[in-house]
Every structure is written in C-alpha cells, then in structure tokens.
Design a protein that fits this description.
Belongs to the bacterial ribosomal protein bL25 family. CTC subfamily. The chain is an alpha+beta fold. About 15% of the residues lie in helices and about 40% in strands.
Length: about 210
C-alpha cells in the first residue's frame, strides 16, 4: 500500500442537472460528483476542480483509499469513475465509492513492468516486449490495496507469454479474472521476434 495520503474537501450539492453542473464548473471552479455505497444513501457533492486535477497527476490516486471530508465529516472512499471532457483537459464528473475496512473492494491496479531491457528475450534474443494489459482488476481489503502491481520480465524469453497467473500478487490480493476460472487467465505481456529478424528470413526462405 502506498504511503501517500490523499484528502478531498467536498460540500453537499443541492442543485442537480446539466445546467447546474455547468454553472458550478464555469462560475465557481467546482466539480459535480457523487459518493455512494456502504449503508448510506448516495449523496451529491461538489469538489474543487483544481484540487482533484492536482491529485490525478499521481498514479497512486487511482488505486488508493482517499479521505473525503464533506462539510467537516470524514468518509473513506476510492475513485470509481471519471467523466472527462472529450477535447479539453477538464473533468466533468467524478464517482466516489465508500469503502469499509472489513469489506473487500474491486479496483483496477496499474501494472509496472520491470526488468524489460535486461530480460532474456530482449538482452539475449533481441526481442520486442509487447504489453497486452496495462492494469489488472483486483479484489482485496482496503488495507491491502497496492499502489501498483509489478510484472517481472527478467526470465521471459523470445516467444514466451506472461499470463495473469504468472504474476506474483501481494498478500491478500486476488485477481478478479482468475476467480472466474482458468479460461480467464489472460495474457499480460509477451516478447516477440523483431520483424525482419534472421529467423523470419529463414522461415520465408524455407516457405519459398
């Protein structure tokens, strides 16, 4: 779990609708959002747009338990969804999910690929690394939530494929895909021969 602490300051939002949301963003620099989940009813809130955008610069923010202060009262949440403007660097809406320390949560954690340049397939075989996935859907208690998940490619050779089951997950963390069975053990990364390699040339000659 990351040592970074994230806090969002919010206020209860009474107005709803697209017109009210546009006014909030244009006139007050506020962002409409909603917090839901747990044993409480969903609640419309507003956030400081600049504050949220600043937090979004940190990768850990997307897979981290956040302290949400609504008019002084605190709740723990995770960022569940974002609606962004299609052409501008503007966030239009945010969904926050309440979490409990005793209840597991499901979230997408970013994948960090390590030892790519020194892997067998790249350093010895001159291969090229292909990333099939950049994040993994996981389930865990909030206390076990990792900032990211490492995928070690050190021993991956040319022609090899790394699957979800090959990833060493942190303690208390499980893959949602694998919980559905072996058929969902999807590829995460592979190392392939570079195009135009001598092996490819030999195969082409043999075919001719």
């Amino acid at each position: 779990m990351s040592t970074e602490d994230f806090t969002l300051i919010a206020s209860v939002r009474e107005d709803s609708g697209k017109g009210a949301s546009r006014r909030l963003r244009r006139e007050q620099g506020l962002l409409p959002a909603i917090v839901y989940g747990g044993d409480k009813a969903p609640q419309n809130i507003t956030l400081e747009h600049k504050e949220l955008v600043k937090h979004l610069e940190h990768e850990a923010f997307y897979s981290h338990v956040i302290t949400l202060k609504i008019d002084g009262a605190e709740e723990t949440v995770i960022l569940k969804d974002l609606q962004r403007h299609p052409a501008k660097a503007v966030v239009l809406h945010a969904d926050l999910l309440r979490v409990s320390e005793n209840s597991k949560i499901t979230i997408n954690a970013p994948l960090h690929f390590i030892n790519e340049a020194t892997s067998k397939g790249v350093k010895q075989g001159g291969g090229i690394v292909n990333h099939t996935m950049t994040e993994l859907e996981i389930s865990c208690l909030p206390s076990a939530l990792p900032e990211f998940i490492e995928v070690d490619l050190a021993d991956v050779d040319v022609g090899d494929t790394v699957h979800i089951s090959d990833i060493k997950l942190p303690a208390g963390v499980t893959s949602v895909a694998l919980s559905h069975g072996a058929d969902h053990d999807l590829p995460v990364a592979s190392i392939s021969k570079p195009k135009g390699s001598s092996d490819d040339a030999e195969e082409t000659t043999e075919e001719a």
